[in-house]
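Good morning C.,

I know you're traveling, so I'll keep this short. The sequence:
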Amino acid sequence: MVELIDLVKRFGELTAVNGVQLAVRRGEFFALLGPNAAGKTTTIKLIAGLMKPTSGTVCVAGFDVQKQPLEARQRLAYVPDFPFLYEKLTPWEFLRFTGQLFQMAESRIQAAARELAARFNLEPYLSKPIEGLSHGTRQRVAIVSALLHDPEVFVIDEPMVGLDPQHARVVKDVLKERSLLGMTVFVSTHQLSVAEEMADRIGIMHQGRLIALGTRDDLRRQSGAAGALEKVFLALTAQDPEGAVEKAPRA
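The tokens, ready to paste straight into the viewer:
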């Protein structure tokens, strides 16, 4: 559902994404980890079509994001770490607007919006201007709007930013439920606990490259470190100060 083929993104002399190969399957919950400036957010933006790669290809649901952008984006939902919302609208108006962008029938918009608003505890805020809402509430509005059209691929950067433990649990539960029903979830996060608890597979980026890829047990074998994912992550990134770890397999 998400395929990155020899993906490269350069900004002048800086190579932010360096030859990444990755295929994420339908219904897979995939977590992308890495230190600051590893290339995670750039990779996410390339998948979402917000940046053009220097070279290589991104495909979403079988469609080339650069050559077939409308087809790819119809099947994709993207939530950045600091999502943009129209602050003068209410959440209900914003959800209706989002549904109309995806050409959803009004009855479907109403049903999906009410179901998701209840699940994410947004009902008390639906008629209040977004500009007066807390960051965590805005984050929930953004996630609900992204789920509204039932995307095939859901891409989110730092999903738990601003969320209290109760609503972080709701987000985890909903995304896992959707992935079990066939939605591909691609999460970029600094929170190792999210990856350890939720992900079917984990990729670790460092200095623009995908240096490790697999299940939690796969990563433990690759790193030689037992125990928590934190130890595995630190061992793998320490092994690759100059890009010395063998390139992660394409899988």
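Safe travels,
E.
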